[in-house]
Amino acid sequence: MTDINERLDDLRQRGLYRRMRLVSGPQGPRVLLDGKPVLLLCSNNYLGLADHPRVREAAAEAAMRYGVGAGASRLVSGNMTVHRRLESELSEFKRSQACLLFGSGYLANAGIVSTLAREGDVVLSDSLNHASIVDGCRLAGARTFVYEHCDLDHLEYGLREAAGRAALIVTDGVFSMDGDVAPLPEIVELARRYDTRVMVDEAHGTGALGPGGRGAVAAAGLEDEVDVVVGTLGKSLGSYGAFVCCDADMAEYLVNTARTLIFSTALPPPAVAGALAALDLLRSSPERVDKLQRNARVLRDSLRDEGLDCGDSETQIVPLVVGGASAAMAACEKALKKGVFAQAIRPPTVPEGTSRLRLAVMASHTSAELRQAAKVLAAVVPAQPQVPREPRPVEAAPRVYDGLAEAA
Ligand SMILES: Cc1ncc(COP(=O)(O)O)c(C=O)c1O
Questions:
Q1: Does residue 385 contact residue 355 with C-beta atoms inside 8 Å?
Q2: Which residues of the chain have pLDDT under 50?
Q3: Is the domain of 98 the same as that of 33?
Q4: Which among 90, 139, 111, 105 is positioned nearest to 262, based on CA atoms?
Q5: Same domain, 91 and 199
Q6: Nearest-CA residue for atom 10 of ligand 1
Q7: 99 occurs within a structural domain
Q8: Are 387 and 321 in contact (CB under 8 A)?
Q9: Which residues pair with 170 in a beta bridge?
Q10: Ligand 1 atom 6: residue of nearest CA
Q11: Which CATH number is 247's domain given?
Q12: Are residues 289 and 277 in the same domain?
């Protein structure tokens, strides 16, 4: 048995050691980080709602009215009126027949993928999908085919290989570490052709893209075509938890089979009420979404003007790929010294050799703050590696295999 300290040393040597930084106060555009004032450029509080007075008040009132905890899972005694209300508002917002809350986006993805893909089935999963989807694939009794990122030829190759056993294509709508958008119309078309379900994770699309911030699926006009849409409450909606939008039969099936819903306590009422207030604000003032998109454009343009490569980002998530893990950490620390907090993201969150600063824009930033941040980042990010844009030939990529998905 290896000593835990040896394992920690190993992580340090590989530049993969992690520690938690400490933020004082709410997730505003400027925070005290480990006691030092910085511009916050890596929070998913995209619309600035986590610290909005009405959201805070709603959560506080719910704590007084319903108590702090739900006390049990939804299927025992934890299903409260406030949960039902949020589900109903979310399904109206997302224009779905049904909506079901989950404890978090992680729990939603892990639970849904693992119950939709059963033994003998094949799940087709984008190579840059979030870890919670990867873990859902690992939990599923099915086999997983990991297709090259957004590579439709490779996806189709996997569907052909699956020979009628494809049960699910699953993709992030907006990719969490790259800020690019999945080719949803083409994926849906392939799914139809090969008689397969589609699941889209809108963790970073909800509140950021599409009409009224309804997400990447709505932006592509596919609300009636995607079988399962997952969203989180912890990012644009400023709270904690997650939800899935689907048809009534699917919701009933998930209530009966999704282990991460069945065996976990229902969301705390203050978190639910906070999300309800945030949703209300999003619907009544969609200009927040426009501001977020404008700010994202300002940051991307300013970075490019400074000669930096933002990859294929089209959204509020902007990667600055550095390459090695230690180099990314060094750039992060240098930026911090100059008052900009953009956390370095390293494997296994991103593939080996693509460690990066992952910038996240908020609607509450000012253009001047973003332009200034771009100057700081240009001074600290070393020469960026050329990331190959050409997809690998289909035959060179992995075939259908058992059990574990390759992407970590
Ligand atoms: C694409 C994606 N899906 C799911 C999740 C997990 O959501 P949550 O933080 O609510 O567990 C995240 C969060 O980081 C994410 O980026």
A1: no
A2: 393-408
A3: no
A4: 111
A5: yes
A6: 105
A7: yes
A8: yes
A9: 125, 199
A10: 105
A11: 3.40.640.10
A12: no
- Inside any domain, residue 27: yes
Which of 235, 243, 240, 236 shows the shortest CA–CA distance to 272? Answer: 240
What type of residue sits at position 356?
R
Is ligand 1 within 6 A of the CB of residue 132? yes
Ligand 1 center to 108 CA (angstroms): 9
Distance from C-alpha of 382 to C-alpha of 103, rounded to nearest angstrom: 39
d(CA 18, CA 355): 14
Structure tokens at 211: 């009409």
Assigned token pair, 298: 């300002």
296 and 160 within one domain: no
What local confidence, expressed as pLDDT, does residue 388 receive? 61
Q: How far apart are CA 55 and CA 273, in angstroms?
A: 8
Are 28 and 159 part of one and the same domain? Answer: no
CATH number at residue 349: 3.90.1150.10
Structural domain count, the chain? 2
Q: What is the pLDDT of residue 387?
A: 65
Q: What is the pLDDT of residue 404?
A: 37
Q: Assess whether 38 and 146 both reside in one domain.
A: no
Same domain, 33 and 76: no
Pocket test for ligand 1, best of 101, 102, 106 (most atoms within 8 A of CB): 106
Minimum-distance ligand 1 atom for the alpha carbon of 174: 1
> Do 141 and 98 share a structural domain?
yes
407 located within any domain: no
Question: What are the tokens at 314?
Answer: 């089209």
Q: 389, exposed or middle or buried, with CB in 10 Å at 0-12, 13-18, 19+?
A: exposed
Quote the pLDDT of residue 390.
53
- Determine if ligand 1 sits within 6 Å of the CB of residue 111: no
- CA-CA-CA-CA torsion sign (374, 376, 378, 383): negative
Task: Give burial (CB, 10 Å; 0-12/13-18/19+) of 211.
Answer: exposed
Q: Which pLDDT score is estimated for 383?
A: 85
How much is the pLDDT for 389? Answer: 55
3 found inside a domain: no
Domain limits for position 337: 21-50+285-380
> How far is C-alpha 53 from the geometric centre of its chain's CA atoms?
25
Ligand 1 center to residue 176 CA distance, Å?
8
107-158 pLDDT per residue, tens: 999 999 999 999 999 999 999 999 999 999 999 989 999 999 999 999 999 9
- Can you give the pTM of this predicted structure? 0.95
Q: Which two tokens stand for residue 255?
A: 């209530």
What is the spatial distance between Cα 101 and Cα 161, in angstroms, rounded to a whole number? 34
